[in-house]
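Figure 3 (text version): structure tokens given as input.
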């Protein structure tokens, strides 16, 4: 191997030390011993926002699944859009099921029987995918709880599947040594400003269900109103809190994820929830995380998530991106198109290279089966990670995230899109925790004999922290030719069988 030995020049050592220190400080800043969390941001911010296990895990799976999957049309927003006169779902619903005044969203629940649901099959697929944590959407915007609830009659144990979905998944997922995740989206459920009718959509904007006197969404029936969120704010806030508390008490999730509009829950209730959860976890000896979007919680308390997007560069503190395997709906529809595995894997690699974690969504059918194309993607992800996972798990960002000619597009919810199409000319970097190995992930399959240029790895750009001992192609373990020059470094692709999705070169330092 043609190596140009290189000592850790002062600038390189300084940058490595600075970034390593920043990394440690960003993740471990909230380490003050505390006897009990109180309901204020100062106390709650003593919590370590990113537990070590989650920072090392990098990859999780969850599932959008509920009564909204029964029609297999449009999206998980069907419960709202079936009442929106401007949306295609409005006329589609009338054609397939009848007028909204006669067939309301609640009428789908008896049809949501989940006869093919098997928690062990779902959990095993999470394990096979290489994900390190996983679980269900505990409750979406529609107000239907996927657990055995005493707080609301609208739950999966008493209706529809008539089984405790969250409880069954908790048992099977943790049995496989994985951490348990649940998400909550029900902050949107309440009928806010119900009387402020917007004629163009047939009702108000400010709740998930569109209020209209002709429909069940305006019902004051003691049971129906709990599903459609037709209640005063003070009652709803308690209702919201008690649902989350019930899941914490009964299932001890390691991660709680909150969708947008969490900020519309009054501050005192967000503080009340956080104090309850963190004190509960402390008593149980759990290291837990709270995930949130936009600016719904202080950065010191939770982990910020960007939906279907990521940061342009390395970002501290560590963050998350939630994305789905399909190009459209998060829930199953009969027109759903699944992304190629390369796109999903490259998104994971890009996110991890920038100090992020990927939460990937699956879309089961109403009967509880997971479509084969989604299973194929998860299995292919797992096969790649089984061989190349050391470049992802337990890693930290290098000095720069990577390079290549592919431009980036803007994400739909901020940051950059997770649907960029990369080539073998693009690459991303990570490094081992101890800094003794740098991983170069090429986002495609180079040809044997190709001389690949990495302009970032150079003494006056981003120097390696020490002399190079050797460089190997990770799948084969074969040592490759590595050359360092003043303005770039070069790897000659070996004549071995390489992965079509992405190829990893491990730079081992002395």
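Below: residues designed for each position.
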């Amino acid at each position: 191997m043609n190596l140009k030995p290189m000592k850790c020049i002062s600038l390189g050592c300084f940058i490595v030390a600075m970034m390593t220190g920043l990394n440690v400080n960003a993740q471990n800043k909230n380490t003050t011993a505390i006897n009990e969390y109180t309901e204020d941001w100062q106390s709650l911010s003593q919590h370590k926002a990113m537990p070590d296990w989650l920072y090392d895990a990098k990859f999780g799976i969850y599932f959008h699944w509920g009564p909204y999957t029964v029609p297999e049309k449009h999206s998980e927003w069907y419960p709202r859009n079936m009442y929106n006169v401007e949306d295609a779902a409005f006329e589609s619903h009338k054609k397939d099921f009848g007028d909204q005044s006669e067939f309301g969203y609640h009428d789908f629940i008896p049809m949501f029987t989940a006869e093919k649901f098997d928690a062990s099959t779902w959990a095993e697929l999470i394990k096979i995918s290489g994900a390190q944590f996983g679980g269900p959407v505990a409750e979406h915007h529609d107000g239907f709880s996927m657990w055995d609830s005493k707080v609301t009659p609208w739950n999966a144990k008493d209706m529809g599947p008539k089984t405790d979905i969250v409880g069954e998944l908790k048992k099977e997922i943790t049995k496989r040594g994985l951490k348990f995740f649940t998400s909550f989206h029900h902050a949107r459920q309440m009928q806010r400003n119900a009387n402020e009718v917007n004629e163009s959509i047939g009702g108000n904007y400010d709740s998930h269900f569109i209020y209209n006197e002709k429909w069940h969404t305006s019902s004051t029936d003691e049971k129906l109103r709990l599903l459609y969120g037709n209640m005063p704010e003070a009652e709803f806030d308690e209702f919201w809190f008690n649902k989350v508390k019930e899941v914490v008490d009964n299932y001890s999730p390691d991660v709680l994820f909150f969708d947008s509009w969490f900020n519309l829950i009054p501050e005192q209730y967000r503080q009340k929830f956080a104090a309850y959860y963190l004190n509960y976890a402390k008593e149980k000896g759990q290291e837990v995380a709270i995930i949130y979007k936009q600016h719904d919680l202080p950065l010191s308390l939770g982990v910020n998530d960007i939906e279907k997007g990521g940061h342009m560069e390395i970002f501290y503190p560590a963050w998350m991106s939630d994305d789905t395997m399909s190009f459209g709906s998060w829930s199953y529809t009969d027109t759903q198109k699944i992304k190629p595995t390369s796109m999903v894997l490259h998104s994971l690699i890009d996110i991890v290279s920038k100090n992020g974690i990927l939460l990937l969504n699956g879309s089961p059918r109403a009967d509880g089966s997971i479509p084969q194309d989604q299973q194929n993607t998860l299995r292919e992800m797992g096969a790649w990670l089984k061989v190349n996972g050391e470049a992802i798990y337990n890693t930290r960002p290098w000095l720069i995230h990577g390079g290549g000619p592919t431009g980036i597009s803007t994400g739909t919810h901020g940051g950059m899109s997770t649907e960029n199409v990369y080539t073998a000319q693009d690459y991303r970097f990570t490094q081992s925790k101890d800094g003794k190995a740098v991983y170069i992930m090429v986002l495609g399959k180079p040809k044997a004999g190709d001389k690949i240029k990495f302009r970032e790895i150079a003494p006056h750009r981003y120097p390696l922290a020490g002399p190079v001992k050797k460089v190997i192609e990770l799948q084969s373990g074969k040592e490759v030719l590595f050359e360092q020059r003043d303005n770039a470094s070069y790897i000659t692709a070996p004549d071995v069988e390489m992965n079509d999705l992405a190829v990893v070169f491990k730079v081992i330092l002395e």
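The longest strand covers residues 133-139.
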